[in-house]
Amino acid sequence: MPDDLSGILESPEHTHLADVGGNTEGPLWHPEGYLTFVSLTESRLYRWDETNGVSVVREDTGEGNGCAFDREGHLLMCEGADHRRVTRMGADGTVTAIAEQWEGKRFHKPNDVVSRSDGSVYFTDPSLRLEPELREYDFAGVFRVAPDGQVHLATDGCEYPNGLAFSPDESVLYVAISRATLDCLGKEERGEFCPHRKIRAFDVAADGSLSNNRVFADMSSAEPGVPDGMKVDTAGRVFCTGSGGVWVFEPDGTRIGVIRGPGVPRNIAFGGPDNRTVYTTPCQ
């Protein structure tokens, strides 16, 4: 039976907005009426708006990847190369690191980031993207930067943590799991079924600690694409890029359907004048 997304989407049509080099990531809609996104392979931060099209905001982002806003509206970015850190960019363009180490150890390659209304910031740090000899700890982590700037390990209970999103009341943190081992990468390349694509969920305590690690949704597939970028709408529905498109789930984990488009999406943002438009960044 085909997916019925008519109750969610006003239109299933996709509009092509821009072409830039490399794999694009980290889309963010700004209240001033424009979209920013990164080219991971070009290490650039781009801006798009309907009047002027595409322009470069920042060069040398260090393989900038997932992006989010902090509580003050500054742009947060995971930088996987060079310093392997999470940064904040001020209104004047000044870039400051907010997380560079945990217990004196460098991160692997920070991947995606989300902020909480209390001022804390969570980010994922999968291990498989970094050569074993360069890893300074032996697990994939989700880390929390507290409002006082201290970096804490939120959980090491995720195989390959990627995208992050909170439920509307911030009582649940969702973590996209792209794969489990290097063998999963081979299955992706060969177009074989991978059973390790999923979304995990954690309960979030008032102090920001996580508990009750569980599988929220199974996204196993042989189609191109893995669980990656994620957003949650005001009704609590989870939108996660993955195999074949953007997967949509009810708050209880029931799959509603897959939004299919012309390419395989890597990340997603909500935006537009009424915040009812879905933007995706595709693989090249």
Average pLDDT confidence is: 95
Structural Rg: 18 Å
Strand content: over 45%
Helical residue percent band: under 10%
Please report the total strand number as a whole number: 24
Largest sheet: 4 strands, antiparallel
Intertermini distance: 30 Å
Low-confidence stretches: none
Quaternary organisation of the protein chains: single chain
| Backbone structural class | mainly beta
Q: Number of DSSP helices? A: 1
Strand order of the largest sheet: 1-2-3-4
Element order, helices and strands? EEEEEEEEEEEEEEEEHEEEEEEEE
Spatial shape: globular
Keyphrases for this structure?
4-stranded antiparallel β-sheet, mainly beta, single chain, about 280 residues, about 45% strand, globular
Overview of this protein structure:
With 284 residues, this protein is mostly beta strands. The chain is 3% helix and 45% strand. It contains 1 helix and 24 strands. It has one helix spanning 182-190; strands at 24-30, 34-39, 44-49, 53-59, 64-69, 75-79, 85-89, 95-99, 101-102, 105-106, 113-115, 121-125, 141-145, 151-155, 161-166, 172-177, 198-204, 210-218, 230-232, 238-242, 245-249, 255-259, 265-271, 277-282. The strands form 7 sheets. Strands 1-2-3-4 form a 4-stranded antiparallel β-sheet, with no helix packed on it. β19 (230-232) and β20 (238-242) form a beta hairpin. The protein is globular and about 50 Å long. 40% of the residues are buried. The mean pLDDT is 95.
SSE arrangement:
Elements: E1 24-30, E2 34-39, E3 44-49, E4 53-59, E5 64-69, E6 75-79, E7 85-89, E8 95-99, E9 101-102, E10 105-106, E11 113-115, E12 121-125, E13 141-145, E14 151-155, E15 161-166, E16 172-177, H1 182-190, E17 198-204, E18 210-218, E19 230-232, E20 238-242, E21 245-249, E22 255-259, E23 265-271, E24 277-282
Antiparallel strand pairs: 1-2, 2-3, 3-4, 5-6, 6-7, 7-8, 9-10, 11-12, 12-13, 13-14, 15-16, 16-17, 17-18, 19-20, 20-21, 21-22, 23-24
